[in-house]
# Entry
Amino acid sequence: EQLEFWTDRDGVSLQGLVIKRGGDGSLLVGGSSGLLKLSADRTRWEPFSDQKEMRHVREIEPLPNGNTMISSTFSGVLEVDRNGKILRTITSKVAQFANEEIRDRHGRLWRCSLQGLSRLDPGAAAWHSWTAKDGLLNAACRSIAVSAAGNEVWLIYHINAMSKLDFSDPERPKITHHSGGNGIDYAFFVRTDRRGWIWRGGGGLNVAEQRNDGPGNWISLTELDGFSTTQREVSRYFFEDSDGSVWLVSPTQIHHF
# Structure
């Protein structure tokens, strides 16, 4: 295993919120004060595109034509080319309904929002939804992770708690909860990776095996593992790259594992 990291001394000073590959394969990180691109020699993060228009970047998506779609709560949804030039405004408004949307390998779209957890099956016209009435701790879903098979979903809230939904029975999911005090810190994200691990970042940076994810089975990554205290306390975003490596973003630091 190898760990790389960059700090404000390397140009990371934008209150990072999201990190992804752009349409040309370059690595971009967006945040409250702009958009940065990793330099060719991997030593620095440099301003990319018009920083005034790129404030409050919430999402980065590659486009088939090699350009990149940038979603900003300040400027709307923009298309930029590989040099950072803004080509057009796709929409001037960004929908605030969904906190996260994830599509699983079966083509099902999972949505996490203040209304709870929802799933749209391929070809379906209506969403399946689960709220506090169905057994969730409350409706305020913050982040979700879906297993590779698509039959398990982990959900974190705007409180110190996490729920797991087992869809072995598609119509009646089994729901279990882990709350604060059982090794569950306040979290910004929960994610699964191709190793079969599940990651949780926010009040700490923690990892467990998906098959053994109960209280007491999580490992907290610390300074001894190469992660700084700052990174562990405010890990805000997780991105699994095409090679299986993992990128983690905090306001002033970026780690690559």
Observations:
- The helical segments are 229-233.
- Residues 229-233 form the longest helix (5 residues).
